[in-house]
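User: For a benchmark we're assembling, each entry needs the component sequences followed by a predicted structure for the full assembly. Here are entry 17's components. Please fill in the structure.
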Amino acid sequence: AQTVTQSQPEMSVQEAETVTLSCTYDTSESDYYLFWYKQPPSRQMILVIRQEAYKQQNATENRFSVNFQKAAKSFSLKISDSQLGDAAMYFCAYRSPAGGGADGLTFGKGTHLIIQP
Amino acid sequence: DTAVSQTPKYLVTQMGNDKSIKCEQNLGHDTMYWYKQDSKKFLKIMFSYNNKELIINETVPNRFSPKSPDKAHLNLHINSLELGDSAVYFCASSQLAGIHNEQFFGPGTRLTVL
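Assistant: Structure for entry 17:
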């Protein structure tokens, strides 16, 4: 079974600064998908960014980018120019290709990101 | 325009009762899921349902049962509610044949068992 570890229960960053959230995972599969989801106080789960394991290029979405290190099984999220609206819980998630992903996502325990004005 | 909707958003009930949470998706997806988020915010898959095939997380008590009247709906029935069932329950959907297989989540249902 796959596991996802987020070692930072909480992170704090000044507005406009850059912050990196860590995520490591354990798997014996070679092809899989990785995601970062954001959960603001409204509790809605919002997809931030995704990465296919077969792609070497790191995914980017505006101010959000990842550092995907497949050999190290690491998938960190970098948020540039942090904004107050970025304050939320961030979850790293793994999706196995087995069964087409029908077995759902495996989540890490989350990192609570605080933005200091 | 809501992609994945859940009702109710809040549910307060007594121990021992039976309750249901409804989920509907209008995205035309072929797979739906239920997740449980506990008081420590940990999210765990409970069920996935695809083309009448049900995949159950082995840790889910059999008091929990998903029911799918059609491809757009996956309701969650819970019998004999216990205090430990208090959590936020999320429904999600995805298209397995899609390139990214992104899961779209509903707004969640906060269940409180007294």
